[in-house]
Amino acid sequence: MSAHPSPDLRPSTTGSARPLTTGKRAPKARRPRLAKRLLPVVLAGLLAFSGWALVAARDLDSSAAAGNRALTDKAGTAAATGDISNTLNTVFSYGPKSLDATQQAARQLLTGTAARQYQQLFAQVRSRDSAQQLTLSTQTVRAGVVTLHGGTARLLVFLDQTSSRADGKKATAAAQLSVDARLSHGQWIITALTAR
Amino acid sequence: MTLPRPTLLRPTLPRLTPRRLVRGLATLIVLAATAASAWTYADARGSSALTGGRARDAALATGRQLVARLNTLDVHHLDADLTAWQNATTGPLHDQLARSRSATRSSLARAGTSTRGTVTDAALTELDPGDGTAKLIAAVTVAVTKDGTTTDARKRFEAGLTRTSGGAWRLTSLTALPAAGGDS
Lengths: 196, 184
Description:
The complex is a heterodimer.
Chain A: H1 5-14, H2 19-23, H3 26-61, H4 64-67, H5 74-91, H6 99-109, H7 112-132, E1 135-149, E2 152-164, E3 170-184, E4 187-195
Antiparallel strand pairs in A: 1-2, 2-3, 3-4
Chain B: H1 4-12, H2 18-45, H3 48-69, H4 78-87, H5 91-99, H6 101-111, E1 114-128, E2 133-146, E3 149-163, E4 169-176
Antiparallel strand pairs in B: 1-2, 2-3, 3-4
């Protein structure tokens, strides 16, 4: 609107610097028409970019690297290692008088194949330990989360297991377990155990 | 002053025809969509879940290989394997291996044992994607061959990892973690 007076002034100040653009009226009239025609093309281009950006962003979010929240979600990782460490310490610690309590706790903290394996193991423990009066104490020494996807996790856990017999003899052994777990009402439950 | 203005301005204002309204609205909507989607993409691209996740995956994958390598040694290729050890490490562990190389070489040659390490499972326990440092634990089965017979030994390790200036992860420490006060 206010642009009208300035082109009229320009030839006198800039001299013959731009005789082509300042002298003719025709290109100026054509420019808005060209912009009008180009506008749909530009808008379509921007829309295409938007679509690409949204798809690319979704791909990044669902990529394996971003989807696995192990260590990138500090609170979630700490909750998983904490729960699993506590569970392993509990279910693999027992004495002649605490067998029932340990097995009761295991029923709540293990499920699936882990629960079945554990029951078989515990049946052996019961028959053997009635004679040996064995006490087993398990301590988690390291735990790392390999994958963490919302409600499921995989961990590697290093355990120290100290067994003491009634005669006072003690032995400590190292155990390494790959643990599969799932989150159930805010508590990580072990679904599978694999010795390494 | 008050009278001439409206008469001057009115003819210069473009008339708001339905077509112009549609064009203007479409432009606004598309520009807003472009800005929003560009922001969404930039956010996903720079999210800590993605950059941290990529660092974690790289550190874990490389760490697994390097821990296996440092548990592997063919008595017939001592020099090549000891060089591979040094190439797998950086910082203090690299210096230590370089210093003790000749002593290690002669003692290994005398022992005559070959080892092959396989990482059966590994996980990171610490990760700082910004600093490029990580801690890894690994369960390793080492096949020890001496005089034609091979026995498997199960071991567990904790390793420190650092991302070098070239972007590759290397071991800065490797410690066996035997059971406390007992045999592993």
